[in-house]
Design a protein that fits this description.
Number of helices: 6
Largest sheet: 7 strands, mixed
Strand content: 25-35%
Helix content: 25-40%
Order of helices and strands: EHEHEEHEEHEHH
Structural class: alpha/beta
Length: 193
């Protein structure tokens, strides 16, 4: 098996990948993550996932490199990024209140030895409860999810904001769709478990 590299500095993605009990190293790629004009959320995350994986090929020429990226969209199509602060997180949760947010998680498994990449996008939708400002502010003060697209942590207290969810792979909501990744690893001859 070629060694695995996770092209990310995300603690969330690292924790998810650890579930597979495969040895790997983490290395953050340095890329521009700006959206291109007219690019949809799905196109953006597919492109960035592959770009992140390929960005590390020079350092890791005989490796399987995993890239992932995520964007969230409101029902009206607006893309939500990471809020970075309380005010923007409150804005995002107000916009999501009583509505749905779809998360698009792009995934790439790049074999830097063969120059072969597998790229996919896994959507996952969260239907939010009606949230008043007091509830939003209590949640934000408790969990401070300012580094999370959509302003919540589904693996934590953020689940209290949901009415329901729908999608094929709940791990995609956290940032690394493990079911699809396992398919990709199997295609590369990696045995899981």
């Amino acid at each position: 098996m070629l060694p695995l590299v996770l092209a990310s500095s995300s603690a969330y993605r690292r924790t998810l990948l650890e579930r597979l009990h495969l040895p790997f190293i983490c290395q953050a790629p340095q890329i521009d993550e700006s959206a291109l004009p007219g690019e949809s959320a799905e196109q953006l995350v597919r492109r960035l996932a592959e770009q992140k994986a390929r960005a590390l090929a020079g350092q890791y020429p005989r490796h399987l490199i995993i890239g992932s990226d995520q964007a969230a969209t409101l029902a009206d199509g607006r893309i939500l990024g990471k809020p970075h602060d309380f005010a923007r997180a409150r804005e995002q949760l107000r916009a999501a209140s009583g509505s749905s947010v779809t998360f698009y998680t792009g995934l790439c498994l790049y074999n830097s030895q063969s120059d072969h990449s597998q790229v996919a996008c896994t959507p996952f939708t969260v239907h939010f409860r009606a949230l008043d400002d007091a509830r939003i502010e209590r949640y934000l003060h408790l969990e401070q999810p300012y580094d999370c697209a959509g302003s919540f942590k589904s693996e934590g207290l953020g689940v209290s904001l949901f009415r329901s969810t729908e999608g094929e792979d709940a791990t995609s909501l956290i940032g690394l769709p493990l079911i699809r990744l396992i398919d990709m690893l199997l295609a590369e001859g990696v045995q899981v478990p």
